[in-house]
Amino acid sequence: MKLISRLLVVFILVVSVDARSQTTNTTKMNIFIDALMKKMTLEEKIGQLNLPGAGDIVTGQASSSDIAKKITEGKVGGLFNIKSVAKIKDVQKVAVEKSRLKIPLLFGMDVIHGYQTMFPIPLGLSCNWDMQAIEQSARIAATEASADGICWTFSPMVDIARDPRWGRISEGNGEDVYLGSQIAKAMVKGYQEGDLSKNNTIMACVKHYALYGAAEGGRDYNTTDMSRVRMFNEYLPPYKAAVDAGVGSVMASFNEVDGVPATANKWLQTDVLRKQWGFKGFVVTDYTGINEMVAHGIGDLQMVAARALMAGIDMDMVGEGFLTTLKKSLQEGKVTAAQIDAACRRILEAKYKLGLFDDPYKYCDEKRAATEIFTDANRKIARKIAAESFVLFKNQGNVLPLKKSGTIALIGPLADATENMTGTWSVAADFSKSVSVIRGLKEAVGNEAKILYAKGSNLTADAAYEERSTMFGKSLHRDARPATEILQEALAVANQSDVIVAALGEAAEMTGESSSRTDIGIPDVQKDLLKALLKTGKPVVLVLFTGRPLTLTWENENVPAILNVWFGGSEAGSAIADVLFGDVNPSGKLSTTFPQNVGQIPLYYNHKNTGRPLPEGQWFQKFRSNYLDVSNDPLYPFGYGLSYTNFTYGDLQLSNTSLKGNQTLSASITVTNSGTRDGKETVQLYIHDMVGSSTRPVKELKGFQKIELKAGEAKTVTFKITPEDLKFYNYDLKYDWEAGDFEIMIGGNSRDVKTVRVNWSK
Ligand code: BGC
């Protein structure tokens, strides 16, 4: 007892010393910024709110670049997408030596899923379900970016998306609000480590606030419209989770919310973000987000810039709407000096917290740039994380893992596609260093097996479509020969083999920004190729590249083995070899539903029941909520993913089935690895609130644990459930739980669960 109370005293002392030192830091910062702002002219304050793109700055020529004049005049707060210590140092020098007040610049970049050591695209990474691994990926990205001069990343992107037509579904964490919130936290922690003053952390920017993933029809930048109840329950929590984790900045989204573009939406940017959630950092627009509000139809540039500032936007990316109109708006009484001051202060605070006033060159250390980027150690971790993000959809007759012997025919437009391995948003990557599938497989087998290669088809029959899908240096080197000739060559190769590995799917830039599709199948010529390969009668493994859920009904029926590898990053080819040959047992689980066809979209596991639900196990009944031509089932449900071993779930055990108030419910299940290989399994907890004052989803993810089991081993997994897990936003937007019956479900995916009902009273 004595020891406990002593420990408690020590704990309280540590906490209060910490709180005191934080207060002192804030006071110091305020004194510094007050003094600085007293010296600033109106123009200089507005200048801090300006974030132009870097343009083409050549190393050693920064001071004569177009942007240098503006920096010298104090009209720039930061720059983005400028790369390398040498260039950043040059530009920073202009700011701190030539501008009147010597205010350092922020240097931002889209470090989305790695810097040079690239991790899987976010949608792929989210299928890893290992929060430590995800945090580690962000940590490595931050270390590498900061070693190369960058102090700010436009990540994490946490937009919930339920429409795979939308290309940017690849940049987020899928459809689920709980998983998305856990990942948001892990990413912010990885980038910032709770301490921006270090030289190897960078400031995160959660985006795109808000609801960008709900674009109508999956068409990019399109209108979004939803009830506030839906926003608060299903779309806003991941942004809030990032705020709770201390994210330094927020990016406003392009779309409108309730009829007002997010960039001018005061309710969103001030009432919710700052007043309700207590966000203390700064808000930046998305690329020309202010200017675009002219096309949205809410005013001319002066008007929309004023509206953005009044809504709570602090920094203007690229469009210079603030720079060119705010002074006039102030003179005309359309904005106030206090609003400009508040925005300027927030930018200066970010610079202060990053330690840029102490040392503007703190991220400009050539030695770090030479030794901390794309290291063997980082690449090794990226390889492991990538392999554990792949999702095994099917493995009929245990075609996989492959043996490292005999002859393997590697066929498909993605098989020798180095530039495409990192996927969309790989701004800092050196594509030439990525490991392609062919390289990965050859390195893995050495002299033990023969790997034969043929392209088999182009990406698409339509050359113009292929061109649109392979931008930013991500060419697939289109083969000009007739399709039949390319195919015949591949069949000749296939016929010499024992097994065929078909590397097919999307090109990297078929998802990402402005890459929406209406037909989300494997493109035409590739499907022809796949059919021809199956006709050879050899076993076929489909190694599927994609940045979105695809419609794979035919493939699921006809191809014996399907491994979804997303875009695995710089080490993709090695990670693919690791899984294909069984050195790594696949353990990825889907963070987004794969529909049977496009007409089912939006299709997501945590839907409502309707008044006319389809009875379980059926796929059509007249006057029920269903389709004439296809069942309501997904092809692959949320949470789904196979392994080379089998996991058997025992009965669900609950500590109690009748609970009251703040009691804790323990839900346990024993999972047995009943196969012959060691493996990892993500055990998922879902809850169904059976009766509510508002309708509730049929189930919601409320917890998960990724466990490792040796062949034959069994482990009991326990989840602790409290009323906190039962809370939701009701009709009045009050966040609370309601007494009643709940179904507790545990399983290996959202469909196959064990269920027990409990009653929970207040
Ligand atoms: C994207 C953002 C990105 C920004 C800067 C925009 O077009 O929507 O996600 O951070 O560009 O590159």
Q: Can you walk through the features of this model?
A:
- The chain has 762 residues and is α/β, with parallel strands linked by helices.
- Among the domains are: 201 residues, 3-Layer(aba) Sandwich (Rossmann fold); 117 residues, Immunoglobulin-like.
- A 6-stranded mixed β-sheet has the order 11-16-15-14-12-13, sandwiched between helices. A 5-stranded mixed β-sheet has the order 19-27-26-21-22.
- Strand 26 and strand 27 form a beta hairpin.
- The longest helix has 38 residues.
- The two termini are 34 Å apart.
- The site of beta-D-glucopyranose (BGC) has 6 residues, from loops.
> CATH H-level name of one domain... which superfamily?
Glycoside hydrolase family 3 C-terminal domain
**Mean of pLDDT:** 96
Secondary-structure arrangement, i.e. CATH architecture of one domain? 3-Layer(aba) Sandwich
- Residue runs with pLDDT of under 50 for 5 or more positions: none
Number of helices: 22
Approximate shape? globular
**CATH topology term of one domain:** Rossmann fold
* CATH first level of one domain: Alpha Beta
Q: Which strands sit side by side, in order, in the main sheet?
A: 11-16-15-14-12-13
- DSSP summary, beta strand count: 27
The main β sheet shows up as: 6 strands, mixed
What structural class do helix, strand and pairing data support?
A: alpha/beta
Estimate the strand proportion: 15-25%
Give the ligands present.
Answer: beta-D-glucopyranose
Rg, Cα atoms, Å: 27 Å
**Gap between N and C termini:** 34 Å
Provide the helix percentage.
25-40%
